[in-house]
């Protein structure tokens, strides 16, 4: 039996990924992400360009004290400037100063860039590549050469493109990484050109693709099929313009679809957590529809689908989500069938099956509510409360006697002030509280929690973390029905609730009350 090759994973989230719009990482951020990447089992972590920014220099200074279990840190830079010798080039010396065991430099493969960007003869560019690689290889354990724009270069002038990587190989480069820098090469072209390169040089090959044609992952996989043994990419596909090849898709494709060794099975189970962690550190919203690691990757909404996966998960899931640290989710909507209701009831530890008489009634209630404008996909806490209430299992933690909201502007140059007054009865005790907020919903939230905190101390930990308003029938103008979605957190978990009314305050009140009742229920009846 022939052993399949091991594919090495080169992560450039900390360098190429940060070139994406709206992404900025501190040194501490980069160190935290590097630690998580090492836990994931990647083989190389490209930390930045030490000659470009003081931040990257500081990162490399601090990362020297980090003991990685799996990854080798790499510094990134370019070939020498044509006016400098390699020994006197500031960029190359900054790479040595970084002190990493791996150095990656890029150079020009495309004759257009040599003549129109560098403005030097084609032969001089080959000297830049060879001199830079030879100089670095004399001081560094492992040197990688990123052949920038290689696929465009080959299509424009194949002879010169191949000369450029031969120069790097003959100078001692350990890896030749073929780059689709503009991201416009299609997967079949990548495979064909990689095959030609393999016949030209004996050096180990890598692939580095961008996603401008939405084919970066496919191109990377095709490059592996054609013989490359290293894939460069970023977590969540972060990167300039349309991003880089997404390692969160590439890694499971290699392991689970092609059976190729890259990280361990146990490390693969940490992929979803790593993906979410890096989104959080980068202060980016995680993409729900991202393959493998997105919240919607294994979510089922249509009743037929739910019924099928309950019988056999393989019917609508291409892998077991647990393999990548994700989980199956059953969504609730007007498309739901009885299987959706039963599945969610099981999550809530409620004894229901498809033949239970209440299920048919619950399904009708769900569809009627969604027809009115309710949406429970992002408000599962409200759905659980609705379910328990319909089954007669709801517990009234408090009773509203009335509320009033005042919005007042006291001077032209001052912001409006919102004040809410609430009367509630809790265990037979009447509470009357008032609070100010930066808006009517904020004021209501504060006043209600003030009333409840004396009886339920856990209220002090609640925080309203998101508030969304959707107008459901725009043509009705100011009389339009409004849907409010609220996300609440207790510092450990978060949950969504919904309210619908022609009055935005009433809709907000419904969602607020559900958010609090859900917290009190969760504290009393622990469940997933």
Q: In short, what is this structure?
A:
The protein has 528 residues and is an alpha/beta fold.
Question: Can you walk through the features of this model?
Answer:
- The model has no long low-confidence stretch (mean pLDDT 88).
- Among the domains are: 8-263, Alpha-Beta Barrel (TIM Barrel), CATH 3.20.20; 299-390, no CATH class.
- The chain is built from 18 helices and 16 strands.
- Helix 6 crosses helix 7 and helix 16 packs across helix 18.
- It has 528 residues and is α/β, with parallel strands linked by helices.
- Helix content is 39%, strand content 20%.
- The chain is elongated and about 85 Å long.
- An eight-stranded parallel barrel has the order 1-2-3-4-5-6-7-8, surrounded by eight helices.
Could you list some keywords that capture this structure?
about 525 residues; alpha/beta; TIM Barrel; eight-stranded parallel β-barrel; three-stranded antiparallel beta sheet; 18 helices; 16 strands
The total of helices stands at: 18
Spatial strand arrangement across the major sheet: 1-2-3-4-5-6-7-8
Q: Would you count the extended β strands for me?
A: 16
Give unreliable regions as ranges. Answer: none
Please state the average pLDDT score: 88
The CATH architecture assignment of the domain at 8-263 turns out to be Alpha-Beta Barrel
Derived from helix and strand composition plus strand pairing, the structural class reads alpha/beta
End-to-end C-alpha gap: 45 Å
Indicate the CATH class of the domain at 8-263.
Alpha Beta
Oligomer: single chain
What's the main sheet like? 8 strands, parallel, barrel
Q: Per DSSP, what share of the residues sits in E-state strands of 2 or more residues?
A: 15-25%
- The fourth-level CATH homologous superfamily of the domain at 8-263 is Aldolase class I
Q: Helical amount among residues, as a percent range?
A: 25-40%
Radius of gyration: 29 Å
